[in-house]
Amino acid sequence: MVNIEVCANSLESALAAQKGGAIRVELCDNLSEGGTTPSYAQIALAKEILSIKVYPIIRPRGGDFLYTNLEFNLMKTDIKTCKALNCDGVVIGILKADGSIDKERCAELIELASPMPVTFHRAFDMSNNLETSLEDIISLGCERILTSGGESSAINGADRIAKLIKLAAGRIIIMPGAGINTNNITELIKTTGALEFHASAKYPVKSTMIFKNPKLNMGSTADEFSYDLTDANTVKMLIELANIPY
């Protein structure tokens, strides 16, 4: 059975993911920045309403994965919050300035999160050596790694992902993510042999505002009068395609 984790940018998206058959959501905010930690309310209500697993991302801002002491303290506090809300796991990733995995800080977060399992996110793809980073993350005790194989999308990094899965040899789950859709998931499965995939399955929702001020935006280069939500039917289709015998 190939399973789908959905990168859910809101509680509404998380509900759609559950309806579509996802086994887990990576709950986050600001997908345009690669995902940041969602609000307390989003996490609390997700745990109250959802029956599938909820893994909030622990990332205080967009940009790189080199954090100040203040940002690191924010991450620790967010993990404590997730633990208090009985989250099923968390998603982390910290690098050093040289691009290596910050094992010391990651170890501190993992210990703080225990007994919640930990996924290492695509900070892995920004590291200076994927094979070395794989061994570092395995030694830390993470449950899985989310990766595009160091490329802009999982389909572009499919061959590298396949190699990482072989190197992991069952010691950790390698979960492809980035740009996964109904057009490429079958090819990705054939190439990588992965059993878990990560997708947002999102679509744009147009605003129902009648009045629209054309003279400004609120800091986004995108359309101010639309937003993205996960589509339950797309999630369902991804799961069906992923589990067709070939």
How is this structure best described in words?
By secondary structure, this protein is of the alpha/beta class. The chain has one domain: Copper homeostasis (CutC) domain (TIM Barrel), CATH 3.20.20.380. The protein is built from eight helices and ten strands. The protein has helices at 11-20, 40-49, 69-84, 103-113, 130-140, 158-168, 185-192, 232-242; strands at 3-8, 24-27, 53-56, 90-92, 118-120, 144-147, 173-176, 196-199, 202-206, 226-230. A four-stranded parallel sheet has the order 3-2-1-8. The chain has a four-stranded parallel sheet with strand order 4-5-6-7, with helices on one face. Helix 2 links the parallel strand 2 (24-27) and strand 3 (53-56). It is globular and about 55 Å long. The mean pLDDT is 95.
Write a concise synopsis of the structure shown.
With 246 residues, the protein is α/β, with parallel strands linked by helices.
Spell out the key features of this protein.
246 residues, alpha/beta, TIM Barrel, four-stranded parallel β-sheet, 8 helices, globular
Helix content: 25-40%
CATH third-level topology? TIM Barrel
CATH superfamily: Copper homeostasis (CutC) domain
* Beta-strand content: 15-25%
- Nearest-integer average pLDDT: 95
Shape: globular
Strand order of the largest sheet: 3-2-1-8
List how many beta strands DSSP finds. Answer: 10
Structural class: alpha/beta
How many domains make up the 3D coordinates?
Answer: 1
Level-1 CATH class name: Alpha Beta
Major sheet attributes = 4 strands, parallel
**Alpha carbon gyration radius:** 18 Å
Kindly, what is the distance between the CA atoms of the first and last residues, rounded to a whole number of angstroms? 13 Å
Question: Any idea what the CATH architecture is?
Answer: Alpha-Beta Barrel
Listing every helix as H and every strand as E from the N terminus to the C terminus, the arrangement reads EHEHEHEHEHEHEHEEEH
